[in-house]
Amino acid sequence: MTSNDTGSSNLGSRVVLFPLPAQGHINPMFQLANILHSIGYAISIVYTPHNAPDISRFPHFHFQLISDSNSQSDYPIFKPLDVVSSINQLNVHYAGPFKICLARILSDHESFGTVRCIVADAIWHFTQAVADELNIPRIVLRTSSVCSFLAFTALPLFRKIGYLANLEARAEEAVQEFPPIKVKDIPTIGDGDQDSTIELISTVVTETKKSSGLIFNTFQELEPPDLNELRRQFRMPVFAVGPFHKRFSAAETSLRKQDRSSIDWLDTQAPQSVLYVSFGSVATMDKTAFLEAAWGLANSGQPFLWVVRPGSINGAVAAPGSEMLPGEWAEEVSQRSCVVEWAPQQEVLAHPSVGGFWTHSGWNSTLESICEGVPMMCAPCFGDQMVNARWVSDVWRIGINLERVFARRDVEEGVR
Ligand code: UDX
């Protein structure tokens, strides 16, 4: 364990937070930390070297870096196909270091004052056992929507009914037990072994139910029946206290440099004319899908701002613009496109030139878009994203769903 203490002078009530090391989980956890700090709590954040945020941007927090006891581990952190195994490894390897770290904070009253509780990402399921052992309440932050969390908790039921054994053959079938999702929207992760996903989710649910409370980055008016159902199933305090990003921006915790030239470019575009295209920090696509997306955008005739994250196109080595996009495509869209590696997304969505968002339906992106009133075109990739996309198109009716596999014609028509 390495120590990296800053800002530990606040001796008021303290909360210790433990984000999962992935962009879509770090953002809401830090936003929640800022909210708690704004109402008077001293904040400690325990973090890992994987996807470490820039802690110099948070001088008002105390940080504690913990290292994996198996320092040789090279996690394929959150590549879509390896998410479950990455999460399992993280839970095994960080249990010991986290416990040592938390025990130290709890026992050092002089430096840290009274610790009221820990707030841990739901995926860090081992933290319940540690909290119980050290006799400190644990509050869980689940960074997804409530609707998708309920779909995850229903996975054992979906398996029992037989949907999971026939995912491809029954893809278009309605899931009667969980309207309005279809079989293809069942929140699977990886490419086959759903048993390991179900085992992980069952552990997350069991350990969450043992906690003192459950926080969601959502709000009552957005998911009222889902929140009612969650409270019925979980019988514990549930706090729907989002949207966090309207209080504190995600820019401070961006793991990549946000390219501000995208805002300069948006400034030159007509009101509500631009389609913003981004698939978050984890999703990847193969070359065929990438080219279908590219030609769909070109054929739509609409101006677009496209985030092409390095590493997001399977098999691409260099910047995809130069390596994979044909010259004729670049020529065709040169007057009405801007391609960047990472954008200041919240600012982009709030920009008057943006009229639509083609998204992978990650929960942060979905919520950020909803809050700016930007209609969505959804192309979900894995996990919670399919359920979010179905809710966007069929429940909230604020967008369309291209479904999981799309061709250039779907894109072209969707944009129009
Ligand atoms: C992951 C999962 O994939 C997602 O399904 C889950 O709901 C949360 O964890 P991710 O895929 O990264 O997250 O998507 P999302 O939840 O949308 O979070 C992405 C974050 O990165 C957003 O806060 C967004 O504003 C930010 N972002 C994205 C940028 O700042 N710039 C970009 O160019 C793209």
Distance, first to last CA: 54 Å
Mean pLDDT: 92
Total of DSSP H or I helical runs spanning 4+ residues = 17
What CATH architecture of the largest domain would you give? 3-Layer(aba) Sandwich
Strand content: 5-15%
In this structure, how is the largest beta sheet organized? 7 strands, parallel
Which regions have little confidence, pLDDT < 50, spanning 5+ residues? Answer: 1-10
Evaluate the radius of gyration: 21 Å
Give the tags.
7-stranded parallel sheet, 6-stranded parallel sheet, globular, alpha/beta, Rossmann fold, 416 residues, single chain, 13 strands, 17 helices, binds uridine-5'-diphosphate-xylopyranose
Give an account of the 3D structure.
The chain has 416 residues and is an alpha/beta fold. It folds into 2 domains: 2-151 and 190-248, 3-Layer(aba) Sandwich (Rossmann fold), CATH 3.40.50.2000; 257-410, 3-Layer(aba) Sandwich (Rossmann fold), CATH 3.40.50.2000. Helices cover 39% and strands 14% of the residues. It contains 17 helices and 13 strands. It has helices at 23-38, 83-93, 95-107, 109-112, 127-134, 146-153, 155-161, 194-209, 224-234, 261-267, 287-300, 320-323, 327-333, 345-350, 363-372, 384-395, 408-415; strands at 14-18, 42-47, 62-65, 115-121, 138-142, 213-216, 238-240, 274-278, 304-307, 337-340, 354-359, 376-378, 399-401. It has a 7-stranded parallel sheet, with helices on both faces. A 6-stranded parallel sheet has the order 10-9-8-11-12-13. Helix 5 (127-134) links the parallel strand 4 (115-121) and strand 5. Helix 3 runs parallel beside helix 5 (127-134) and helix 11 (287-300) packs parallel to helix 17 (408-415). It starts with 13 loop residues before the first strand and ends with a helix. The model is unreliable at 1-10 (pLDDT under 50). The chain binds uridine-5'-diphosphate-xylopyranose. Residues 22-25, 27, 143-144, 250, 254, 258, 278, 280-283, 307, 342-343, 345-346, 362-365, 368, 383-385 line the site of uridine-5'-diphosphate-xylopyranose (UDX).
